[in-house]
């Protein structure tokens, strides 16, 4: 049966924030396709999650060339979902992709050279069947390519109509500033910066977040649930089918430490007092900072996604809650 999105998809609880100084509105909750959309995953569940997201006001879907496994298959599968069910809704969607991590063999399939970025966006457009990406990112600073070379490739991508906006991901402070400066001067500003941020990883508080704000870049947090550690998943061991249990998952068993789980259990008690699940509170904690445009969540079921969207119901924290949380997470 043909998919018809919920008529009230924008009348629900989803909130939208301007992405930095740009005119682009992003939903506070975005959906990432790093895990659970590859060829090893259930295409039916993947399709249901995209439909559920869209029905609930999630307009932003985050991809990268190498998401899978196999690398590239998340883009291919998302392309199939778009073709089957979303052809009439492209203008209601923000679709992002990235280049910069290892993707194909040989010297040009990795890194942030102009060669890699230009070839990669063409491949990503073919896999997804899209005419253009809304946002295209340099996925990382590769430590060698001059930032100016990568920046020029991003500018040209916009000029060629292959992306509407550009962003950076995980750049160290020094290179992050150069990207902002160079892009600003070119008239193609860096509208978004994507970094890991959660109660378990607050390194961006050391400067990346403030620098993005200084240059008017929006900021989107990835792995806000610490890949599931900040949910009820691991409170009683490692469940079958969880990311840590799967050989294809990026969360390794040795990252599910006793110390982290003990803290997660105590955070879970604070969440319960707030009438939230731990996942909801973990997302609310990231979103409480006005400089955070959106969080990119991952999910392996519609149920998880539903829970994550509920975070928006309560983004406010009392001073007592904040200091309790701070003292729990300060040792991590
Ligand atoms: N720029 C970059 O370098 C970069 C790097 C990493 C990620 N990202 C982006 O960020 C996105 C999100 O990253 P992530 O998947 O690590 O995010 P995450 O939201 O921290 O973790 C998602 C995982 O947490 C579990 N989960 C989610 N909601 C839950 C809930 N309500 N209750 C219980 N468990 C729940 C699920 O694990 P199970 O699968 O075990 O059920 C899910 O797969 C990626 O898809 C990608 O788009 C970007």
Description:
The protein has one domain: NADP-dependent oxidoreductase domain (TIM Barrel). It is built from 10 helices and 10 strands. The strands form 2 sheets. The chain has an 8-stranded parallel barrel with strand order 3-4-5-6-7-8-9-10, surrounded by 6 helices. Strands 1-2 form a two-stranded antiparallel ribbon. Helix 6 links the parallel strand 8 and strand 9. Helix 3 runs parallel beside helix 4. The longest helix is centred in the last third of the chain and has 16 residues. The radius of gyration is 19 Å and the shape is globular. The model has no long low-confidence stretch (mean pLDDT 97). The structure holds NADP nicotinamide-adenine-dinucleotide phosphate (NAP). NADP nicotinamide-adenine-dinucleotide phosphate binds next to strand 10 and helix 9.
């Amino acid at each position: 049966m043909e998919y018809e999105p919920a008529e009230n998809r924008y009348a629900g609880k989803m909130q939208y924030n301007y992405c930095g100084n740009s005119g682009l509105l992003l939903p506070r909750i975005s959906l990432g396709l790093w895990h659970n959309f590859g060829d090893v995953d259930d295409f039916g569940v993947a399709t249901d999650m995209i439909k559920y997201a869209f029905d609930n006001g999630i307009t932003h879907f985050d991809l990268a060339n190498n998401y899978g496994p196999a690398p590239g298959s998340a883009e291919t599968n998302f392309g199939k979902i778009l073709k089957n069910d979303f052809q009439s809704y492209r203008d209601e969607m923000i679709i992002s992709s990235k280049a910069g991590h290892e993707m194909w063999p040989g010297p040009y399939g990795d890194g942030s050279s102009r060669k890699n970025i230009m070839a990669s966006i063409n491949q990503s457009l073919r896999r997804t069947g899209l005419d253009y990406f809304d946002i295209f990112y340099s996925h990382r600073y590769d430590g060698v390519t001059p930032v100016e070379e990568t920046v020029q490739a991003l500018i040209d991508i916009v000029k060629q109509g292959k992306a509407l906006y550009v962003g950076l991901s995980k750049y160290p402070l020094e290179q992050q500033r150069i990207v902002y400066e160079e892009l600003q001067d070119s008239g193609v500003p860096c509208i978004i910066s994507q970094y890991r941020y959660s109660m378990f990883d607050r390194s961006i508080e050391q400067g990346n977040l403030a620098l993005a704000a200084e240059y008017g870049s929006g900021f989107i947090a990835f792995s806000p649930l610490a890949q599931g550690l900040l949910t009820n998943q691991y409170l009683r061991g490692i469940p079958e089918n969880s990311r840590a249990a799967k050989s294809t998952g990026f969360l390794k068993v040795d990252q599910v430490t006793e110390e982290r789980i003990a803290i997660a259990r105590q955070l879970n008690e604070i969440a319960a007092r707030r009438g939230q699940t731990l996942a909801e509170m973990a997302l609310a904690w990231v979103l409480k900072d006005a400089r955070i445009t959106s969080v990119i969540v991952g999910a392996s079921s519609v149920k998880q996604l539903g829970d994550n969207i509920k975070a928006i119901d309560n983004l406010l924290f009392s001073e007592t809650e904040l200091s309790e949380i701070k003292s729990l997470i300060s040792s991590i």
